[in-house]
């Protein structure tokens, strides 16, 4: 309290004006910022700002956000291909996965400045060109992103799914990859039945529905993160 009083007294003696803290952010919408860095909805308002949790104000650059519907379906990665043929990366499919996880586009495209989305090599250089050990090399950046999900999913890297050695059979043509179905199906509105009975709680027999009606997991469980179901090291989730 004494420290605060001293600061206010000093400012009053120097003649410096004292503004309310909210004045600092009054015109922040005009600043060169991406609204989605802090707001999770399209039209934030005073009553409903829909603020994200812990927005990263202290970054030197900003990460762009894009809709999975607007990205390239397939990207050919041919930067490092000394021993292998170029990799055909199913970009749209992975973008759809990240759209309903916590990372979003920033899972891979982190610290991207405003403007076009830059290729990884703009910041992550090949080993022979690295100038700073503080920034991971290009090969490490590629594998760090891929293995982080693939090992969590199946605990198997399955390198041959993306990498084919030179002289071996090539990967499937791009047309076959584009024919893959969308990751998730549209979610139907939930139907809730209300009852006036004294005992409204109903016991749901999960195994009976699964076995008797021949249902698959995704018939009921949609738009959940991959790790919720596919991390084999974790105990099964009881639904």
Account of the protein in words:
- The chain has 239 residues and is mainly alpha-helical.
- Among the domains are: 39 residues, no CATH class; 111 residues, Cytochrome C3.
- The chain has six helices and two strands; from the N terminus they run αββααααα.
- A two-stranded antiparallel ribbon has the order 1-2.
- About 8% of the residues have low confidence.
Quick gist of this model?
With 239 residues, the protein is mainly α. The protein is 23% helix and 3% strand.
The stretches of 5 or more residues where confidence is low (pLDDT under 50) are: 14-22, 54-62
Q: What is the number of E strands?
A: 2
CATH architecture of the domain at 68-178: Alpha-Beta Complex
Average pLDDT taken over every residue = 70
CATH class of the domain at 68-178: Alpha Beta
CATH topology tier name of the domain at 68-178: Cytochrome C3
User: Globular, elongated, flat, extended or rod-shaped: what is the shape?
Assistant: flat
Describe the largest sheet.
2 strands, antiparallel
The CATH homologous superfamily of the domain at 68-178: Cytochrome C3
List keywords for this structure.
6 helices; 23% helix; two-stranded antiparallel ribbon; 239 residues; single chain; mainly alpha; flat
SSE blueprint and pairings:
Blueprint lengths: L1 H13 L60 E3 L9 E3 L1 H9 L38 H17 L19 H5 L27 H7 L13 H5 L9
Antiparallel strand pairs: 1-2
């Amino acid at each position: 309290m004494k420290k605060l009083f001293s600061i206010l007294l000093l400012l009053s003696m120097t003649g410096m004006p004292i503004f309310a803290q909210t004045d600092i952010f009054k015109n922040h919408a005009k600043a060169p910022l991406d609204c989605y860095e802090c707001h999770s909805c399209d039209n934030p308002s005073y009553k409903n700002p829909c603020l994200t949790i812990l927005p990263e104000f202290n970054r030197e650059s900003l990460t762009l956000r894009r809709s999975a519907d607007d990205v390239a379906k397939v990207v050919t990665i041919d930067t490092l291909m000394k021993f292998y043929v170029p990799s055909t990366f199913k970009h749209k499919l992975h973008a759809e996965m990240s759209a309903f996880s916590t990372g979003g586009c920033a899972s891979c495209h982190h610290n991207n400045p405003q403007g076009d989305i830059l290729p990884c090599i703009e910041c992550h250089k090949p080993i022979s060109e690295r100038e700073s050990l503080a920034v991971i090399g290009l090969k490490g950046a590629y594998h760090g992103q891929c293995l982080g999900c693939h090992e969590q999913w199946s605990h198997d890297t399955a390198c041959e799914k993306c990498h084919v050695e030179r002289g071996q059979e090539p990967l499937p043509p791009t047309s076959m990859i584009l024919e893959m179905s969308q990751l998730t199906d549209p979610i139907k509105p939930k139907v809730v039945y209300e009852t006036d009975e004294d005992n409204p709680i109903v016991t749901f027999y999960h195994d009976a529905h699964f076995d008797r009606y021949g249902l698959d997991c995704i018939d009921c469980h949609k738009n959940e993160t991959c790790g919720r179901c596919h991390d084999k090291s974790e105990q099964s989730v009881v639904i």
